[in-house]
């Protein structure tokens, strides 16, 4: 039996209130590991044609074989389902302690189906899942829900909750846990809302931490991983490396200088005065504390305090993507207003990236006269931004239409080109005219535009694992495939993406081998990653995302960048797609049966 | 006057690590360089064009993706000129791969330390050296130059590439 697992999952039917338990198939664990991979397998088995907001959709809350262990940066929890925003399979990950505690409570995952008639929350404790009435919590913010449920079940209880946005089926509603970590993208909170599932409370004690099958190898693997994460020359080095000091938002100034920061809804690629929403500025002027997640020495999370109208508001975390979406992308560089918008998104349980994009689309539509309704706002209107954000969460006025997602909104007003989206999900904080790799990564991401499937800026900006020219398209298809496969694997362990800035295939292989109790090679890791990526693509193909689904917003192909660092540049999507499909062995975005057979996803003729 | 930083065997051929030569385009600078160091001609050019294996960067950008030899140069431009990977040798600069970690990999693969920064593997020799870190904004990323030579160089180079694979997010 492979080590690292609780070997127990719960199937929860919210329609009937029934809970069943089962052990995962060992073959599935070897093929898909856990977390994202195993979740995708279960969502695939549930069928690609389900209505994402219907009772038949499956919502998977997953951890991985290294969750809840002492493996560094192993605090990630995967939420996997069919997305109401994109209609693709999606996975979104949150940090904190939820994943660890789920393992300590005796579970590798929770598979949630059906829909309750009245609001409920789940209590996960001592290998059992019970359903509880959540009527008194319905309508409350995520923060209020955390507080009430921790008062009820103890401060050791970990709570992940949806907010009013999830209840109101905002298609980009998310989950927030009591450490204010978000499973942000893809609308997994709306799936919970459609099931009347308000929260999940997890009670688990560290004594239940799984032990490695090969303790001697584990000591070596853990020492090696820790040493490279802590190496003072690596960006992860606690209190020394740039990512530890400034968090994700260290990228703000860099991308602005490179002309790789989409601003004013991507009409420009930089913004004047960006400094005041940058990681460096926030650290100097707003930082309260460097918080962290389970088993993480890096502590990239930043508790900050912003000040508005005489009130002090504390929250985590002033992340790069959030500060960009609710700042630069909507034409604002105000430290406090941007912070307040981030705080509100967390309170209402909405993806900051998608929310910022929705507001940016409304702003451009207003300025161009495409939207002439009463809720129109212009770029840089900070109070207007907050007003629209709240309207989206509560589906009021134009917010009701924006809550369907900026792509649907832009289409509804007859200007789909205003929405910078792929497969219905909006872009994050990197402009593919200044970072060409992001173009192919966005286009081919299985969950819609995303920077976390293949983080090409690692190579294009940071020279990891080797430096590539940010403005050259050559080689980016190959790089994207490598990163996609690597991240599909680490998302299945489930380790933080930041671990990849210090650890590589050797470190991951050794740690998993020590837990599994059998050898693991770097080649096997990439094969597992490739299998997961192809299964996701196959699901999407069956769900209706076929040939032509890997596109980019027209703006990146036709409107040249106007800022230094990338001035005059467009994104060479066609060339990159050709290279990428060749590397993948796909036919215009569709996985051929032979590939599925070779990866063991479909039985081969010999089987 | 533009600066040209020279690397590896180009340093042996010229006896210099950096030279300053006249030129308003990349092509003019290379012509001036060849006039000063004729031994470089065969290395740099194939016919009228830049030799396929040579890597030439202008402020970090491969000139092939700019305007090639006609790329205009500012008075204070800096070019980095790398020799082709040839004679069974393979060279790569890796980010976020500390030297002690590469040494650990090499020992696990049966490598034997010959001297500081030099390991012998079956059929290949690996040389590595820390270079100036890449500094971007408030970030600094270590850079390790790795060179593999010998009959089995390609296979070992790919093994190192795989071990060095990292990403981020």
Task: Provide an overview of this structure.
The complex is a heterodimer of chains A (607) and B (169). Chain A is built from 24 helices and 17 strands. With 607 residues, chain A is of the alpha+beta class. The longest helix of chain A is centred in the C-terminal third of the chain and has 22 residues. Chain A starts with 8 loop residues before the first strand and ends in a 9-residue tail after the last helix. In chain A, 65% of the residues are buried. The mean pLDDT of chain A is 97. Chain B has 169 residues and is an alpha+beta fold. Chain B has five helices and twelve strands. Chain B has two domains: 80 residues, Ubiquitin-like (UB roll) (Roll); 75 residues, 2-Layer Sandwich (Ribosomal Protein S8, Chain: A, domain 1), CATH 3.30.1370. At the A-B interface, helix 7, helix 8, helix 9, helix 19 and helix 21 of A face strand 6, strand 8, helix 4, strand 11 and strand 12 of B.
Helicity range of the residues of chain A? 25-40%
Overall 3D shape of chain B: globular
Q: So, the CATH homologous superfamily of the largest domain in chain B? A: Beta-grasp domain
Counting helices, strands and paired strands, the structural category of chain A is alpha+beta
Q: How many structural domains are formed by the residues of chain B?
A: 2
Strands of the largest sheet of chain A, in order across it? 2-1-6-3-4-5
| CATH architecture field of the largest domain in chain A | 4-Layer Sandwich
What can be said about the biggest beta sheet of chain A?
6 strands, mixed
The amount of beta strand of chain B, in percent, is 35-45%
Classify the helix fraction of chain B into a percent range. Answer: 25-40%
Number of domains of chain A: 3
CATH topology of the largest domain in chain A: Aldehyde Ferredoxin Oxidoreductase,  A, domain 1
Q: How large, in whole angstroms, is the Cα Rg of chain A?
A: 22 Å
CATH topology of the largest domain in chain B: Ubiquitin-like (UB roll)
Q: CATH first level of the largest domain in chain A: which class?
A: Alpha Beta
DSSP E strands of chain A, number: 17
Oligomer: heterodimer
Mean pLDDT of chain A: 97
């Amino acid at each position: 039996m492979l080590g690292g697992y609780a070997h127990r999952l719960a199937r929860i039917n919210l329609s009937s209130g029934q809970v069943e338990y089962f052990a995962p198939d060992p073959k599935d664990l070897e093929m898909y590991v856990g977390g994202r991979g195993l979740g995708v397998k279960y969502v695939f088995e549930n069928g690609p044609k389900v209505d994402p907001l219907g009772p038949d959709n499956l919502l998977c809350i997953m951890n991985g074989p290294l969750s809840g262990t002492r493996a560094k940066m192993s605090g990630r929890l995967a939420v996997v389902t069919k997305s109401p925003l994109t209609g693709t399979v999606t996975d979104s990950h949150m940090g904190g302690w939820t994943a660890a505690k789920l393992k300590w409570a005796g579970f590798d995952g929770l598979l949630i189906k059906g829909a309750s008639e009245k609001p409920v929350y789940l209590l996960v404790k001592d290998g059992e899942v019970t359903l509880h009435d959540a009527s008194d919590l319905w309508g409350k913010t995520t923060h209020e829900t955390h507080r009430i449920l921790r008062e009820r079940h103890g401060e050791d209880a970990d709570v992940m909750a949806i907010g009013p946005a999830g209840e109101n089926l905002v298609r980009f509603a998310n989950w927030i846990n009591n450490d204010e970590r978000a499973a942000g993208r893809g609308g997994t909170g709306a799936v919970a809302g459609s099931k009347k599932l308000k929260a999940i409370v997890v009670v688990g004690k560290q004594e239940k931490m799984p032990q490695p099958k090969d303790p001697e190898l584990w000591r070596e693997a853990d020492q090696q991983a820790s040493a490279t994460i802590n190496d003072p020359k690596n960006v992860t080095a606690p209190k020394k490396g740039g990512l530890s000091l400034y968090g994700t938002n260290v990228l703000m100034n860099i991308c602005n200088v490179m002309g790789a920061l989409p601003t004013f809804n991507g009409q420009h690629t930089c913004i004047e005065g960006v400094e005041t929403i940058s990681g460096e500025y926030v650290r100097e002027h707003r930082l309260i504390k460097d918080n962290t997640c389970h088993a993480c020495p890096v502590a990239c999370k930043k508790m900050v305090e912003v000040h508005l109208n005489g009130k002090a508001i504390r929250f985590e975390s002033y992340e790069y993507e959030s500060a960009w979406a609710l700042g630069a992308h909507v034409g604002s560089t105000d430290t406090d207003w941007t912070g307040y918008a981030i705080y509100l998104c967390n309170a209402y349980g909405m993806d900051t990236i998608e929310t910022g994009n929705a507001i940016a689309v409304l702003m451009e539509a207003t300025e161009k006269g495409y939207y002439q309704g009463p809720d129109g706002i212009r770029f840089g209107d900070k109070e207007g931004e907050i007003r629209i954000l709240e309207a989206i969460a509560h589906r009021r006025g134009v917010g009701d239409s924006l809550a369907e997602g900026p792509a649907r909104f832009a289409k509804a007003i007859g200007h789909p080109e205003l929405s910078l989206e792929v497969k219905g999900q909006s872009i994050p904080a990197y402009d593919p005219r200044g970072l060409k790799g992001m173009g192919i990564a966005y286009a081919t991401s299985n969950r819609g535009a995303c920077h976390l499937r293949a983080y090409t800026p690692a190579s294009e900006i940071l020279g990891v694992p080797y430096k590539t020219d940010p403005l050259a398209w050559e080689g980016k298809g190959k790089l994207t495939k490598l990163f996609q496969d690597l991240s599909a694997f680490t998302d299945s362990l489930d380790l933080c993406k930041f671990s990849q800035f210090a650890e590589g295939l050797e470190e991951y292989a050794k740690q998993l081998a020590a837990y599994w109790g059998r050898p693991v090679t770097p080649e096997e890791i990439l094969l597992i990653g490739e299998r997961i990526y192809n299964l996701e693509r196959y699901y999407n193909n069956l769900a209706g995302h076929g040939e032509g689904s890997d596109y980019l917003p027209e703006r990146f192909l036709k409107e040249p960048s106007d800022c230094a660092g990338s001035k005059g540049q467009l994104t060479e999507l066609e060339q990159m797609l050709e290279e990428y499909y060749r590397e993948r062995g796909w036919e215009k975005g569709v996985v051929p049966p032979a590939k599925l057979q070779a990866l063991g996803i479909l039985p081969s003729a010999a089987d | 006057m533009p600066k040209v930083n020279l690397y590896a065997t180009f340093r042996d051929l010229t006896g210099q690590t950096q030279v300053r030569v006249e030129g308003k385009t990349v092509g003019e600078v290379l012509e001036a360089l060849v006039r000063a160091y004729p031994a470089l001609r065969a290395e740099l050019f194939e016919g009228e064009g830049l030799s396929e294996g040579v890597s030439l960067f202008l402020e970090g950008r491969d000139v092939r993706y700019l305007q090639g030899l006609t790329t205009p140069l500012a008075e204070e431009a800096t070019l980095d000129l790398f020799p082709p990977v040839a004679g069974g040798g393979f060279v790569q600069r890796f980010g976020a791969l500390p030297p002690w970690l590469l040494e650990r990999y090499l020992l696990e693969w049966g490598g034997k330390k010959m001297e500081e920064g030099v390991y012998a593997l079956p059929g290949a020799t690996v040389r590595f050296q820390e270079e100036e870190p890449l500094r971007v904004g408030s970030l600094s990323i270590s850079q390790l130059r790795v060179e593999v030579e010998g009959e089995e160089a390609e296979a070992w180079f790919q093994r190192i590439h795989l071990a060095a694979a990292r990403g981020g997010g």
